[in-house]
Specification:
Double Stranded RNA Binding Domain, elongated
């Protein structure tokens, strides 16, 4: 049976005490940044460096995988207050 290669690398970004922290789920890559833009840039660079010179198929990855990022953000609204305003 032929193994299916992943076309994506998933990562999660959350807010720490002082920095945003990014962590990949499929490969051992973790980085941080002071802003979301800096964190995403650092994550792209860290993933590229981690994969440089590697046989992607041995890692279960297809050539040129896409990076999918999920971010945890602050609440955008107070739900109780918003519900009250709609009544």
């Amino acid at each position: 049976m032929k193994e299916t290669l992943q076309h994506t690398i998933k990562a999660f970004i959350g807010k720490g005490e002082k920095y945003y922290v990014a962590e990949c789920l499929e490969i051992p890559v973790v980085t941080q940044g002071k802003s979301l833009d800096e964190t995403v840039a650092n994550l792209k660079e860290a993933v590229a460096l981690h994969l440089e010179g590697e046989d992607l198929a041995q890692l279960g990855l297809a050539p040129n995988p896409t990076l999918i990022i999920t971010m945890e953000t602050e609440p955008v609204a107070n739900v109780q207050r918003t519900a009250h305003l709609l009544q």
